[in-house]
Amino acid sequence: PSDVTLSSAKKKCSALTGSARKIKDNAADWHNLLLRWENLNDEGFKVAGRVVDLRLMRSQGDELLLLDKSSCPSVSSSPQTGGAIELNDECCKLKDVIDKMAMIVMKMQHLMASQQGVQDLEEFQFGSGGRRFPLFHSWETKAFGDSSRALLESFSEELKLKRMIQEELAHTGSSDLCMVYLSCWLHQPFVPPDTRLSLEALLLETGHRPL
Questions:
Q1: How far apart are CA 38 and CA 126, in angstroms?
Q2: CB of 119 closer than 8 Å to CB of 149
Q3: 62 pLDDT tier (thresholds 50, 70, 90)
Q4: Distances from the Cα of 86 to the Cαs of 92, 119, 190, in angstroms?
Q5: Is 169 within 8 Å of 175 (Cβ atoms)?
Q6: Residues 103-157: pLDDT tens digits?
Q7: Buried b / exposed e across 70-108, counting CB within 10 Å, b at 16+?
Q8: Are 23 and 51 a contacting pair, CB within 8 Å?
Q9: 3-state secondary structure (DSSP) of residue 70
Q10: DSSP letter at 210?
Q11: 18 vs 161, more confident
Q12: Is-contact 6 209, C-beta < 8 A?
């Protein structure tokens, strides 16, 4: 992967084979996917802010703003519905951001499956106790799977939250509740600092970060 910034250990990467090479490549993929997620999170926050601004400009009783939560329907182009059309466009943009986030989570699932495959192979080759010596510095092969699983669970739950926010944001007339939704989107409660530390530990162990 080209996005990840590698340490001088990159020079040794070509010498890696088998499980070690696969795990190192997976770690780089995790890094790149998280970078893309963060970019989408920033983009989505800006769009969500515009949705809130447009929503709060309208009356709570305006039936034109009761958009279908599961789609982005067409809105009448009459002059009276200009605000609803703009809101609808922003809701569609937010849905597009979340669809891209869903694709990232799907790729994370593939990484988890790949890591599980490495672990299964190691157990087949060396037994349930695994290999005698670590592939890199100190982690057993199982630890890479545990780290990947924790990352996947965090972002899967965060995606669910994003979907809920997207479904509710344009239907909320309370400015306080809108601010709660925006805060949740920005701060990502299901992706706490420990999650990012887990990724950094994975990059350190595999040599993508210098010790």
A1: 38
A2: no
A3: low
A4: 10, 50, 31
A5: no
A6: 999 999 999 999 999 888 888 877 776 677 778 888 988 899 999 999 999 999 9
A7: eebeebeeeeebebbeebbbbbebbbebbeebeebbeeb
A8: no
A9: coil
A10: -
A11: 161
A12: no
- For tokens 């989570």, name the residue: 105
**What tokens does 76 get?**
């009448």
Q: Of the candidates 72, 6, 3, which has an alpha carbon nearest to the alpha carbon of residue 38? A: 3
For every residue of 167-192, DSSP letters joined together read HHHTT---HHHHHHHHHHHHH-TTS-
pLDDT above 90 covers a percentage of the chain that reads 54
Half-sphere exposure (Cβ direction) of 135: Cα atoms closer than 13 Å: 26
- The SS3 call for residue 169 is helix
Cα separation, 94 vs 49, in Å, equals 10
Per-residue pLDDT tens for 12-52?
A: 444 556 888 999 999 999 999 999 999 999 999 999 999 99
Alpha helical stretches, state H, 10-126: 10-13, 18-57, 82-126
Beta carbons of 166 and 156 less than 8 angstroms apart: no
Return the axis-axis angle of helices 141-169 and 18-57, rounded to nearest 10°: 10
CA 85 to chain centre: 29
